[in-house]
Amino acid sequence: MIDGAELTNSFNLRRLLRRHATRVGIPDSAQAVVRIRHPVAFTAYLPTIALLHLPGPPLLPSWLAWLAPLAAAWVWLLAFGTWRLGTRHYQGGGGMNVADSELPDSIIDIENLTRHSSASTQRASLATPPRNAHRRRPNDLSDRARFGGRVYRRQRGREVHHHQDADRHPVPTAGTVRTCGLEPVRQRRELAARIGVVFGQRSQLWWICHCAKSFSILAAIHRLDPDVAHKRTYELVEQLEMAETLTPRCANSRWGIACGPRWAAALVTFPRVDHPRRADHRLDVLVQAAVTRIPARRTHRARHHAAADHPRYG
Amino acid sequence: MSFASEVFSAFLIGVVEFAEVWVIYHNVRVLGGLDMNGALLLFGLSNTGFALAQVLFGHLDSLPQLIRLGTLDAYHLRPQPLLLQLITSDISLRRLARASVAMIVLGLGLIRNDLNWDLATFVLLTITLLSESRCSAHSSPSRRARNST
Fold first, then answer.
1. Which residue has the higher pLDDT, A204 or A113?
2. Cα–Cα nearest to A44, from B38, B94, B111
Protein backbone atom coordinates (compact mmCIF):
# COMPACT_ATOMS: atom_id res chain seq x y z
CA MET A 1 0.00 0.00 0.00
CA ILE A 2 1.34 3.38 -0.97
CA ASP A 3 0.67 6.10 1.52
CA GLY A 4 -1.16 8.68 -0.50
CA ALA A 5 0.16 11.65 1.44
CA GLU A 6 3.74 10.80 0.55
CA LEU A 7 2.88 10.51 -3.10
CA THR A 8 1.06 13.81 -3.23
CA ASN A 9 3.78 15.50 -1.22
CA SER A 10 6.26 14.56 -3.90
CA PHE A 11 3.90 15.99 -6.50
CA ASN A 12 3.39 19.16 -4.51
CA LEU A 13 7.08 19.72 -3.95
CA ARG A 14 7.87 19.19 -7.58
CA ARG A 15 5.12 21.56 -8.53
CA LEU A 16 6.33 24.23 -6.16
CA LEU A 17 9.85 23.86 -7.49
CA ARG A 18 8.57 24.05 -11.02
CA ARG A 19 6.62 27.16 -10.24
CA HIS A 20 9.60 28.86 -8.72
CA ALA A 21 12.02 27.68 -11.34
CA THR A 22 10.76 30.51 -13.56
CA ARG A 23 10.87 28.60 -16.79
CA VAL A 24 14.61 28.76 -17.32
CA GLY A 25 14.60 25.51 -19.23
CA ILE A 26 13.65 25.31 -22.87
CA PRO A 27 9.95 24.49 -23.19
CA ASP A 28 10.18 21.16 -24.97
CA SER A 29 7.14 19.24 -26.04
CA ALA A 30 7.07 17.05 -22.94
CA GLN A 31 6.93 20.07 -20.72
CA ALA A 32 4.17 21.54 -22.83
CA VAL A 33 2.11 18.41 -22.31
CA VAL A 34 2.64 18.62 -18.59
CA ARG A 35 1.58 22.24 -18.69
CA ILE A 36 -1.64 21.42 -20.45
CA ARG A 37 -2.50 18.70 -17.95
CA HIS A 38 -1.41 20.65 -14.88
CA PRO A 39 -1.54 24.30 -15.86
CA VAL A 40 0.78 25.47 -13.10
CA ALA A 41 2.00 28.45 -15.05
CA PHE A 42 -1.38 30.08 -14.62
CA THR A 43 -1.02 30.23 -10.87
CA ALA A 44 1.87 32.64 -10.66
CA TYR A 45 4.16 32.94 -13.65
CA LEU A 46 1.68 34.22 -16.21
CA PRO A 47 0.07 36.79 -13.90
CA THR A 48 3.50 38.01 -12.91
CA ILE A 49 4.70 38.62 -16.45
CA ALA A 50 1.34 40.15 -17.28
CA LEU A 51 1.54 42.54 -14.34
CA LEU A 52 5.13 43.50 -15.09
CA HIS A 53 4.41 43.83 -18.85
CA LEU A 54 7.19 41.41 -19.68
CA PRO A 55 7.12 39.64 -23.04
CA GLY A 56 7.47 36.08 -21.70
CA PRO A 57 8.57 33.01 -23.64
CA PRO A 58 7.08 32.41 -27.11
CA LEU A 59 4.82 29.54 -26.02
CA LEU A 60 3.37 31.44 -23.08
CA PRO A 61 2.18 34.91 -24.10
CA SER A 62 1.23 37.07 -21.16
CA TRP A 63 -2.41 37.54 -22.19
CA LEU A 64 -2.90 33.89 -21.23
CA ALA A 65 -3.01 35.12 -17.63
CA TRP A 66 -6.62 36.17 -18.20
CA LEU A 67 -7.56 32.55 -18.82
CA ALA A 68 -6.67 31.53 -15.26
CA PRO A 69 -10.33 30.78 -14.33
CA LEU A 70 -10.52 28.44 -17.32
CA ALA A 71 -7.42 26.64 -16.14
CA ALA A 72 -8.90 26.40 -12.65
CA ALA A 73 -12.09 24.88 -14.02
CA TRP A 74 -10.10 22.39 -16.04
CA VAL A 75 -8.07 21.34 -13.03
CA TRP A 76 -11.21 20.96 -10.94
CA LEU A 77 -12.74 18.78 -13.60
CA LEU A 78 -9.62 16.62 -13.68
CA ALA A 79 -9.44 16.35 -9.90
CA PHE A 80 -13.12 15.57 -9.56
CA GLY A 81 -12.87 12.88 -12.22
CA THR A 82 -10.01 11.14 -10.48
CA TRP A 83 -11.79 11.51 -7.16
CA ARG A 84 -14.87 9.84 -8.57
CA LEU A 85 -12.73 7.09 -10.01
CA GLY A 86 -11.06 6.58 -6.66
CA THR A 87 -14.24 6.53 -4.60
CA ARG A 88 -15.90 4.19 -7.08
CA HIS A 89 -13.13 1.69 -6.56
CA TYR A 90 -12.97 2.14 -2.82
CA GLN A 91 -14.15 -0.99 -1.14
CA GLY A 92 -13.94 -0.22 2.51
CA GLY A 93 -11.04 0.17 4.86
CA GLY A 94 -10.50 -3.54 5.36
CA GLY A 95 -11.29 -5.63 8.37
CA MET A 96 -12.56 -9.14 8.82
CA ASN A 97 -14.74 -10.00 5.89
CA VAL A 98 -16.81 -13.12 5.82
CA ALA A 99 -15.95 -15.19 2.78
CA ASP A 100 -18.02 -13.98 -0.13
CA SER A 101 -19.09 -17.42 -1.24
CA GLU A 102 -20.99 -17.94 2.00
CA LEU A 103 -23.23 -14.98 1.48
CA PRO A 104 -26.16 -14.50 -0.86
CA ASP A 105 -25.96 -11.62 -3.28
CA SER A 106 -28.50 -9.29 -1.76
CA ILE A 107 -29.87 -8.80 1.73
CA ILE A 108 -33.53 -9.20 0.88
CA ASP A 109 -34.70 -11.58 -1.84
CA ILE A 110 -38.34 -11.40 -2.82
CA GLU A 111 -39.97 -13.90 -5.16
CA ASN A 112 -43.54 -13.56 -6.37
CA LEU A 113 -44.76 -12.19 -3.09
CA THR A 114 -48.50 -11.60 -3.38
CA ARG A 115 -51.64 -11.64 -1.35
CA HIS A 116 -54.72 -13.30 -2.80
CA SER A 117 -57.94 -12.61 -1.00
CA SER A 118 -60.33 -15.48 -1.34
CA ALA A 119 -63.91 -14.99 -2.44
CA SER A 120 -65.30 -15.74 1.01
CA THR A 121 -63.29 -12.98 2.71
CA GLN A 122 -64.41 -10.48 0.07
CA ARG A 123 -68.02 -11.38 0.51
CA ALA A 124 -67.74 -11.13 4.26
CA SER A 125 -66.22 -7.67 4.10
CA LEU A 126 -69.16 -6.43 2.08
CA ALA A 127 -71.61 -7.35 4.80
CA THR A 128 -72.14 -4.66 7.40
CA PRO A 129 -70.69 -5.68 10.73
CA PRO A 130 -72.77 -5.33 13.89
CA ARG A 131 -72.44 -2.00 15.63
CA ASN A 132 -70.60 -3.31 18.62
CA ALA A 133 -68.20 -5.37 16.52
CA HIS A 134 -65.19 -3.60 17.88
CA ARG A 135 -66.17 -4.35 21.48
CA ARG A 136 -66.88 -8.00 20.96
CA ARG A 137 -64.00 -10.30 21.76
CA PRO A 138 -63.14 -11.84 18.39
CA ASN A 139 -61.77 -15.15 19.38
CA ASP A 140 -63.97 -17.40 17.31
CA LEU A 141 -62.53 -18.90 14.19
CA SER A 142 -65.10 -17.41 11.85
CA ASP A 143 -64.14 -13.92 12.85
CA ARG A 144 -60.47 -14.57 12.23
CA ALA A 145 -61.23 -15.98 8.83
CA ARG A 146 -63.34 -12.98 7.99
CA PHE A 147 -60.74 -10.44 9.04
CA GLY A 148 -58.17 -12.23 6.98
CA GLY A 149 -55.41 -10.77 9.07
CA ARG A 150 -54.41 -10.18 12.59
CA VAL A 151 -56.81 -8.90 15.18
CA TYR A 152 -55.39 -6.41 17.59
CA ARG A 153 -56.76 -5.70 21.02
CA ARG A 154 -56.33 -2.32 22.56
CA GLN A 155 -57.60 -1.30 25.95
CA ARG A 156 -57.79 2.21 27.21
CA GLY A 157 -59.32 2.44 30.66
CA ARG A 158 -62.48 0.47 30.62
CA GLU A 159 -62.95 0.52 26.87
CA VAL A 160 -61.73 -2.41 24.86
CA HIS A 161 -61.29 -2.16 21.12
CA HIS A 162 -60.50 -4.86 18.68
CA HIS A 163 -59.31 -3.73 15.34
CA GLN A 164 -57.88 -5.36 12.33
CA ASP A 165 -54.82 -4.03 10.74
CA ALA A 166 -54.74 -6.16 7.65
CA ASP A 167 -53.80 -3.24 5.42
CA ARG A 168 -50.77 -2.27 7.37
CA HIS A 169 -49.48 -5.77 8.00
CA PRO A 170 -50.69 -7.81 5.10
CA VAL A 171 -49.90 -11.46 5.48
CA PRO A 172 -48.78 -12.85 2.15
CA THR A 173 -50.51 -15.91 0.81
CA ALA A 174 -47.98 -16.81 -1.86
CA GLY A 175 -44.33 -16.21 -2.67
CA THR A 176 -41.17 -16.24 -0.63
CA VAL A 177 -39.00 -13.73 1.15
CA ARG A 178 -35.44 -14.36 2.21
CA THR A 179 -33.50 -11.97 4.39
CA CYS A 180 -29.77 -12.67 4.32
CA GLY A 181 -30.75 -16.00 2.80
CA LEU A 182 -32.92 -16.90 5.79
CA GLU A 183 -36.66 -17.09 6.29
CA PRO A 184 -37.50 -13.90 8.18
CA VAL A 185 -40.07 -15.37 10.56
CA ARG A 186 -39.15 -18.97 11.03
CA GLN A 187 -35.40 -18.40 11.28
CA ARG A 188 -35.61 -15.08 13.08
CA ARG A 189 -33.14 -16.13 15.74
CA GLU A 190 -30.39 -16.83 13.22
CA LEU A 191 -31.34 -13.69 11.39
CA ALA A 192 -31.00 -11.55 14.50
CA ALA A 193 -27.55 -12.96 15.05
CA ARG A 194 -26.59 -12.31 11.46
CA ILE A 195 -27.71 -8.70 11.51
CA GLY A 196 -26.21 -7.87 14.87
CA VAL A 197 -26.87 -4.54 16.45
CA VAL A 198 -28.76 -2.11 14.28
CA PHE A 199 -27.15 1.30 14.18
CA GLY A 200 -28.71 3.63 16.64
CA GLN A 201 -29.95 0.82 18.79
CA ARG A 202 -28.72 0.60 22.34
CA SER A 203 -26.06 -1.97 22.90
CA GLN A 204 -26.98 -5.31 24.31
CA LEU A 205 -25.34 -5.18 27.67
CA TRP A 206 -27.04 -5.87 30.94
CA TRP A 207 -26.10 -2.91 33.02
CA ILE A 208 -26.56 -4.45 36.42
CA CYS A 209 -24.38 -7.46 35.63
CA HIS A 210 -20.67 -7.73 35.20
CA CYS A 211 -19.70 -7.30 31.60
CA ALA A 212 -18.50 -10.88 31.32
CA LYS A 213 -21.93 -12.09 32.44
CA SER A 214 -23.56 -10.06 29.69
CA PHE A 215 -21.64 -11.95 27.08
CA SER A 216 -22.66 -15.35 28.37
CA ILE A 217 -26.31 -14.21 28.44
CA LEU A 218 -26.01 -12.92 24.89
CA ALA A 219 -24.48 -16.15 23.69
CA ALA A 220 -27.26 -18.12 25.36
CA ILE A 221 -29.92 -15.92 23.77
CA HIS A 222 -28.45 -16.39 20.36
CA ARG A 223 -27.99 -20.12 21.01
CA LEU A 224 -24.29 -20.00 20.33
CA ASP A 225 -22.39 -23.15 21.11
CA PRO A 226 -20.77 -22.53 24.53
CA ASP A 227 -17.32 -23.43 23.28
CA VAL A 228 -17.66 -21.15 20.29
CA ALA A 229 -19.02 -18.39 22.50
CA HIS A 230 -16.10 -18.70 24.91
CA LYS A 231 -13.61 -18.61 22.11
CA ARG A 232 -15.31 -15.64 20.49
CA THR A 233 -15.51 -13.68 23.72
CA TYR A 234 -11.85 -14.36 24.45
CA GLU A 235 -10.97 -13.24 20.93
CA LEU A 236 -12.90 -10.01 21.28
CA VAL A 237 -11.44 -9.29 24.70
CA GLU A 238 -8.01 -9.67 23.17
CA GLN A 239 -8.74 -7.50 20.17
CA LEU A 240 -10.49 -4.73 22.04
CA GLU A 241 -8.08 -4.78 24.97
CA MET A 242 -10.87 -4.80 27.49
CA ALA A 243 -9.60 -7.39 29.95
CA GLU A 244 -9.82 -4.99 32.87
CA THR A 245 -13.25 -3.70 31.94
CA LEU A 246 -14.86 -7.11 32.19
CA THR A 247 -14.94 -7.39 35.97
CA PRO A 248 -16.73 -4.23 37.13
CA ARG A 249 -20.40 -3.81 36.56
CA CYS A 250 -21.26 -2.17 33.27
CA ALA A 251 -23.27 0.53 34.98
CA ASN A 252 -20.24 1.59 37.01
CA SER A 253 -18.00 2.21 34.06
CA ARG A 254 -18.11 5.44 32.21
CA TRP A 255 -19.04 5.84 28.57
CA GLY A 256 -15.54 5.57 27.24
CA ILE A 257 -14.73 2.48 29.24
CA ALA A 258 -17.91 0.69 28.31
CA CYS A 259 -17.18 1.36 24.67
CA GLY A 260 -15.15 -1.79 24.13
CA PRO A 261 -17.76 -4.10 25.65
CA ARG A 262 -20.40 -2.41 23.54
CA TRP A 263 -18.56 -3.21 20.36
CA ALA A 264 -17.96 -6.69 21.63
CA ALA A 265 -21.65 -7.20 22.40
CA ALA A 266 -22.43 -6.27 18.85
CA LEU A 267 -19.85 -8.66 17.51
CA VAL A 268 -20.33 -11.77 19.63
CA THR A 269 -22.64 -13.42 17.13
CA PHE A 270 -20.41 -12.92 14.07
CA PRO A 271 -22.83 -10.45 12.50
CA ARG A 272 -22.88 -9.51 8.87
CA VAL A 273 -23.15 -5.76 8.51
CA ASP A 274 -24.21 -4.31 5.22
CA HIS A 275 -23.89 -0.95 3.62
CA PRO A 276 -27.40 0.45 3.57
CA ARG A 277 -27.08 2.29 0.27
CA ARG A 278 -25.23 -0.06 -2.01
CA ALA A 279 -25.83 -3.75 -1.77
CA ASP A 280 -22.54 -4.63 -3.42
CA HIS A 281 -20.60 -2.23 -1.27
CA ARG A 282 -20.18 -4.18 1.90
CA LEU A 283 -18.65 -2.25 4.74
CA ASP A 284 -18.30 -3.95 8.01
CA VAL A 285 -18.03 -0.70 9.81
CA LEU A 286 -18.51 -2.23 13.20
CA VAL A 287 -15.90 -4.87 12.75
CA GLN A 288 -13.46 -2.50 11.30
CA ALA A 289 -13.81 0.17 13.93
CA ALA A 290 -13.50 -2.49 16.57
CA VAL A 291 -10.41 -4.08 15.15
CA THR A 292 -8.46 -1.00 14.12
CA ARG A 293 -8.22 0.88 17.37
CA ILE A 294 -10.56 1.75 20.14
CA PRO A 295 -8.67 3.17 23.07
CA ALA A 296 -9.68 1.55 26.32
CA ARG A 297 -10.01 4.86 28.10
CA ARG A 298 -11.13 7.91 26.25
CA THR A 299 -10.07 11.33 27.39
CA HIS A 300 -12.38 14.25 27.12
CA ARG A 301 -10.65 15.61 24.06
CA ALA A 302 -10.45 12.35 22.20
CA ARG A 303 -14.14 11.72 22.59
CA HIS A 304 -14.79 14.93 20.75
CA HIS A 305 -13.23 13.59 17.57
CA ALA A 306 -14.56 10.07 17.67
CA ALA A 307 -17.40 10.49 15.23
CA ALA A 308 -16.91 6.92 14.10
CA ASP A 309 -17.76 5.70 17.57
CA HIS A 310 -21.00 7.60 17.77
CA PRO A 311 -23.78 5.07 18.18
CA ARG A 312 -25.71 6.72 15.37
CA TYR A 313 -23.01 6.39 12.80
CA GLY A 314 -21.45 3.12 13.75
CA MET B 1 1.99 19.86 20.04
CA SER B 2 0.38 23.03 21.17
CA PHE B 3 -1.35 25.36 18.78
CA ALA B 4 1.27 28.05 19.24
CA SER B 5 4.17 25.79 18.34
CA GLU B 6 2.31 24.44 15.33
CA VAL B 7 1.62 27.95 14.12
CA PHE B 8 5.24 28.85 14.68
CA SER B 9 6.54 25.85 12.75
CA ALA B 10 4.21 26.56 9.85
CA PHE B 11 5.39 30.16 9.89
CA LEU B 12 9.00 28.96 9.90
CA ILE B 13 8.39 26.71 6.90
CA GLY B 14 7.01 29.65 4.97
CA VAL B 15 9.97 31.81 5.90
CA VAL B 16 12.47 29.11 4.92
CA GLU B 17 10.81 28.66 1.57
CA PHE B 18 11.04 32.35 0.95
CA ALA B 19 14.67 32.36 2.06
CA GLU B 20 15.55 29.85 -0.66
CA VAL B 21 14.17 32.11 -3.33
CA TRP B 22 15.80 35.13 -1.76
CA VAL B 23 19.23 33.47 -1.66
CA ILE B 24 19.02 32.52 -5.34
CA TYR B 25 17.96 35.94 -6.53
CA HIS B 26 20.35 37.76 -4.24
CA ASN B 27 23.23 36.05 -6.03
CA VAL B 28 21.99 35.86 -9.60
CA ARG B 29 20.12 39.18 -9.92
CA VAL B 30 18.18 38.16 -13.02
CA LEU B 31 16.88 34.66 -13.72
CA GLY B 32 14.52 33.75 -16.51
CA GLY B 33 13.78 37.40 -17.25
CA LEU B 34 12.75 38.17 -13.65
CA ASP B 35 14.71 40.18 -11.13
CA MET B 36 14.35 40.16 -7.35
CA ASN B 37 11.19 42.25 -7.33
CA GLY B 38 9.55 40.10 -9.97
CA ALA B 39 10.50 37.01 -8.02
CA LEU B 40 8.86 38.50 -4.92
CA LEU B 41 5.65 38.90 -6.85
CA LEU B 42 5.90 35.43 -8.33
CA PHE B 43 6.59 33.81 -4.98
CA GLY B 44 3.85 35.79 -3.28
CA LEU B 45 1.24 34.87 -5.84
CA SER B 46 2.05 31.18 -6.05
CA ASN B 47 2.48 30.68 -2.33
CA THR B 48 -0.63 32.63 -1.36
CA GLY B 49 -2.73 30.45 -3.60
CA PHE B 50 -1.11 27.29 -2.34
CA ALA B 51 -1.46 28.27 1.31
CA LEU B 52 -5.09 29.29 0.92
CA ALA B 53 -5.83 25.99 -0.76
CA GLN B 54 -4.09 24.25 2.12
CA VAL B 55 -6.30 26.09 4.60
CA LEU B 56 -9.43 25.03 2.77
CA PHE B 57 -8.56 21.55 1.58
CA GLY B 58 -5.27 20.64 3.27
CA HIS B 59 -6.80 18.25 5.73
CA LEU B 60 -7.69 15.95 2.86
CA ASP B 61 -4.06 14.90 3.12
CA SER B 62 -4.99 12.83 6.15
CA LEU B 63 -7.21 10.60 4.05
CA PRO B 64 -5.14 7.43 4.61
CA GLN B 65 -5.47 7.95 8.34
CA LEU B 66 -9.22 8.45 7.99
CA ILE B 67 -9.41 5.19 6.07
CA ARG B 68 -7.44 3.33 8.71
CA LEU B 69 -9.59 4.64 11.54
CA GLY B 70 -12.78 3.79 9.69
CA THR B 71 -13.92 7.40 9.69
CA LEU B 72 -14.28 7.38 5.92
CA ASP B 73 -16.62 4.42 6.12
CA ALA B 74 -18.68 6.30 8.67
CA TYR B 75 -18.84 9.21 6.23
CA HIS B 76 -20.02 6.79 3.57
CA LEU B 77 -23.00 5.94 5.74
CA ARG B 78 -24.27 9.50 5.96
CA PRO B 79 -26.57 10.77 3.25
CA GLN B 80 -24.34 13.64 2.15
CA PRO B 81 -21.74 13.85 -0.61
CA LEU B 82 -18.50 12.31 0.58
CA LEU B 83 -16.20 15.02 -0.73
CA LEU B 84 -18.32 17.74 0.85
CA GLN B 85 -18.21 16.01 4.21
CA LEU B 86 -14.45 15.63 3.98
CA ILE B 87 -13.92 19.26 3.02
CA THR B 88 -16.08 20.59 5.81
CA SER B 89 -14.85 18.12 8.41
CA ASP B 90 -11.87 20.10 9.57
CA ILE B 91 -10.23 23.44 8.88
CA SER B 92 -7.01 24.00 10.74
CA LEU B 93 -6.19 27.57 11.53
CA ARG B 94 -2.50 26.84 11.96
CA ARG B 95 -2.19 26.74 8.19
CA LEU B 96 -3.09 30.42 8.12
CA ALA B 97 0.41 31.12 9.42
CA ARG B 98 1.97 30.05 6.18
CA ALA B 99 -0.64 31.95 4.25
CA SER B 100 0.26 35.06 6.19
CA VAL B 101 3.93 34.76 5.20
CA ALA B 102 2.90 34.37 1.59
CA MET B 103 0.60 37.35 1.77
CA ILE B 104 3.28 39.53 3.33
CA VAL B 105 5.65 38.60 0.51
CA LEU B 106 2.92 39.30 -2.01
CA GLY B 107 2.38 42.70 -0.45
CA LEU B 108 6.10 43.44 -0.65
CA GLY B 109 6.12 42.36 -4.26
CA LEU B 110 3.19 44.62 -5.08
CA ILE B 111 4.81 47.60 -3.38
CA ARG B 112 8.31 47.22 -4.77
CA ASN B 113 7.31 46.70 -8.39
CA ASP B 114 6.10 49.89 -9.97
CA LEU B 115 2.79 48.63 -11.29
CA ASN B 116 0.33 51.03 -12.81
CA TRP B 117 -2.70 50.55 -10.59
CA ASP B 118 -5.55 50.58 -13.03
CA LEU B 119 -8.67 48.47 -13.07
CA ALA B 120 -7.09 45.74 -15.19
CA THR B 121 -4.38 45.15 -12.59
CA PHE B 122 -6.94 44.81 -9.82
CA VAL B 123 -9.13 42.44 -11.78
CA LEU B 124 -6.19 40.34 -12.86
CA LEU B 125 -4.91 40.05 -9.30
CA THR B 126 -8.32 39.06 -7.99
CA ILE B 127 -9.07 36.40 -10.56
CA THR B 128 -5.55 35.08 -10.25
CA LEU B 129 -5.81 34.64 -6.51
CA LEU B 130 -9.27 33.13 -6.73
CA SER B 131 -8.58 30.68 -9.49
CA GLU B 132 -5.19 29.92 -8.07
CA SER B 133 -6.48 28.66 -4.80
CA ARG B 134 -8.76 26.41 -6.83
CA CYS B 135 -5.90 25.26 -9.00
CA SER B 136 -3.68 24.37 -6.11
CA ALA B 137 -6.53 22.60 -4.45
CA HIS B 138 -6.09 19.88 -6.97
CA SER B 139 -3.58 18.21 -4.66
CA SER B 140 -5.77 15.47 -5.95
CA PRO B 141 -7.19 13.44 -3.09
CA SER B 142 -8.31 10.89 -5.63
CA ARG B 143 -4.91 9.45 -6.09
CA ARG B 144 -4.77 8.73 -2.42
CA ALA B 145 -8.09 7.03 -2.30
CA ARG B 146 -7.11 4.80 -5.15
CA ASN B 147 -3.75 3.89 -3.75
CA SER B 148 -4.98 3.18 -0.29
CA THR B 149 -7.51 0.61 -1.29
1. A113
2. B38
